[in-house]
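Raw record, unedited: Mannose-6-phosphate receptor, binding protein
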Amino acid sequence: MRIPSLSAAAALMAVAASAVRAEEATTTAPIPACTAISSTSNGAFFDLRPDVAKAPATDKSTRRSITKDYHARGYDYGSNFTINICEPVVAPVKDVVGVSKALWGNVSAYYTHKDKVYSIGSSSLDLRSRGRKLVLRYGDGSPCEAASKPNKSARDQKPATGDKDKGKDTVRRKSTVISFLCDRDSGNAQAAFSFVGTDPDECAYFFEARSAHACAQAEPHRRGNVGPGSVFGLILVIAVLVYVIGGVCYNRTVAHARGWRQLPNYSLWAGIGSFVTVRSSAHPTKPGLPIHSRRGS
């Protein structure tokens, strides 16, 4: 006679477990932009949003500490660089070489050479974790130069147009790779950029950025996620349901109980209820009347 009740309880637990898995799968929120989770198994969280430079806000409640673009000296390259993190540069640019006017507002890194603005990448929110480093890549910059003459700098050449029969999509464009390093000891409130180098074709640019926000931290709870409290609550509800329904099935089929006596451990709960009732009736109190104690003679 116990087999039906046990099988019913097992079926209930299986349904509840599947409901928990479905809840976790449907309520997990996507990772915010300009953040990353460690590629290793330690589950570290990286958030570079405080380092993003944005235009000054008119509202005092939304003012940000970083309102200007980052700069990196080019040293022997001959030009300095202006960069922002994840988003376009704050100071607007125009007349960008090889980039349509509609895309000038997406430029996230550029340099100026002989009064010409060259984009080395458009904005990207795809922050990646590779080991202990964070990597951010910008693409779709100005066309790479065709260094056809060895006596001229690649920046002085005309942009490569590619083969006519292959269309414009074959044009190689400048790109940028930024490697972020954890730096808590610098004392700077914002990231510090350093130009590392470029490839011989001046098509790929490499930078290193040090920031305290590039250090691993605990991932904050996101709205829509099933947190530890929610998981514990679901488990508690499932346990109570299994206890009540399983006990009712057992008492009804095995003990042939009816009414309230079908509840599991009915005598225990009834005794607790009687105890509370007796205690409350033994000391009746009326509002407004003082309570006198009886003293022995």
